[in-house]
Specification:
This protein is α/β, with parallel strands linked by helices. The chain folds into two domains: about 120 residues, Aspartate Aminotransferase, domain 1 (Alpha-Beta Complex); about 220 residues, Type I PLP-dependent aspartate aminotransferase-like (Major domain) (Aspartate Aminotransferase, domain 2), CATH 3.40.640.10. The chain has 14 helices and 14 strands. Helix 12 packs parallel to helix 14. The chain is globular. The model has no long low-confidence stretch (mean pLDDT about 95). Bound molecules: pyridoxal-5'-phosphate. This is Aminotransferase.
């Protein structure tokens, strides 16, 4: 089994701790336990009192009833029984792909997107074809190309909606065309949905509601702002598939643990408040990012629609210098970005703009300064 390095994760593992101005992360500024507890009418007193007495056994194996109830509210067609908790969305993707794909299977994956969605099936021996995203399409791939790529043997199509690193969104009408193609060859559709668009206008729906062979993976890491609680989930209408996934869970994780399950359930119970906070950060910071891009001639961007990742284009930097530039930027200014070559797109960079406002403003200011100094 040969597993290639995870480009963006490897970059962050090496460099993120040396950053003083981190504008690379895809999360929304993370919540503390104190902030989460403050969403409770009694400030979390009853919740904490109960948790203090709770035995730290394995807890509920697939997720507590409270957790499943909260997650099921995010879907219209997924019963509670068809929701399985996982170790983050990474765990959900890992497990679903392991459950679906084997040696020689044909898989199509939106590319580039979250690397796990194509390199993990490849490692399992699948033949993976890339459904290429295109800048001129607002970073979406072309439906006609997917139509030409599917084969009668296509087992799985992997999507990321909204997508990393660009923030591009597949609307339900776009997805209905993808589903029609998947259905024509009886393929499963796995969609990593950790980035929920946070504006009210964008039309959005989870794949598990749209397609009988759709698998939605998600977590509380990104839109819900709590990546330090390692809880995600798989949701699907397909009961038989859930049984297959259950078998793998017993080999890979057992449960997410009592503490993580309890906090994740609380976060989801208060999702309206969590999302309102996230919406405010995304909206305010996106305006700052837009102002900066518009007055900075050395960069351009197809702006995301209320999604916490964005993808910057360097107008004059030679693409083969992207990583060298990002390392020097970090060393000389403390500003962390993720160079686009880590997503197989040199000449660009991921900007995680949903950090605190001061870091964002200062990070962008120093990035501008350094762009000038570097290009001299
Ligand atoms: C698209 C996507 N899926 C999954 C993850 C990881 O999610 P989790 O923290 O829930 O494992 C990331 C993290 O960057 C991501 O960008």
């Amino acid at each position: 089994m040969e597993l290639v390095q995870f480009g963006c994760e490897d970059w962050l593992n090496v460099w993120e701790k040396s950053a003083t101005l981190d504008i690379a992360q895809s999360t929304i500024e993370a919540l503390s336990l104190e902030e989460i507890l403050s969403f409770e009418p009694d400030g979390g007193k009853a919740f904490m009192a109960k948790l203090m007495k709770e035995q730290f056994s394995y807890g509920w194996i697939e997720g507590s009833p409270a957790f499943k109830t909260e997650v099921a509210k995010l879907y219209q067609r997924v019963p509670e029984d068809n929701i399985l908790s996982t170790n983050g969305a990474t765990g959900a993707n890992f497990l679903s792909i392991l459950g679906l794909v084997g040696q020689g299977d044909h898989v199509i994956a939106q590319y580039p997107s979250y690397q796990q969605l194509y390199d993990w099936p490849k490692t399992l021996g699948a033949q993976v074809d890339y459904w290429q995203i295109k800048e001129e399409n607002g970073w979406l791939p072309a439906i006609d190309e997917l139509r030409q790529m599917v084969k009668p043997t296509t087992k799985l199509i992997c999507l990321n909606n909204a997508a990393q690193p660009t923030g591009a969104i597949m609307t339900p009408s776009f997805l209905s065309e993808v589903i029609e193609i998947a259905r024509s060859v009886d393929a499963y559709l796995l969609c990593d949905e950790v980035y929920l668009p946070l504006d009210e206008e964008t039309d959005y729906a989870p794949i598990a509601d749209l397609y009988e062979k759709g698998i939605s993976t998600n977590s509380i890491s990104k839109t819900y702002s709590v990546p330090g609680i390692r809880v995600g989930w798989i949701a699907t209408q397909d009961r038989n598939l859930c049984y297959e996934f259950r078998k793998i869970r017993d080999y890979t994780m057992i449960s997410t643990g009592v503490f993580d399950d309890a906090v994740a359930s609380l976060v989801l119970k208060h999702r309206e408040k969590v999302l309102a906070r996230a919406r405010q950060i995304v909206k305010g910071n996106l305006a700052i990012l837009k102002d900066w891009v518009e007055q900075e001639p050395l960069v351009s961007m197809i702006f995301p629609k209320a999604v916490s990742v964005s993808f910057l284009k360097f107008e004059e930097l030679p693409p083969n210098k992207t990583e060298e530039f990002a390392i020097q930027l970090l060393k000389e200014t403390g500003v962390l970005i993720i160079p686009g070559n880590r997503f197989d797109l040199p000449g660009y960079a991921r900007i995680g703009y949903c950090t605190d406002e001061k870091t964002l403003r200062e990070g962008l200011r120093k990035l501008s300064e350094f762009l000038r100094a570097y290009q001299k």
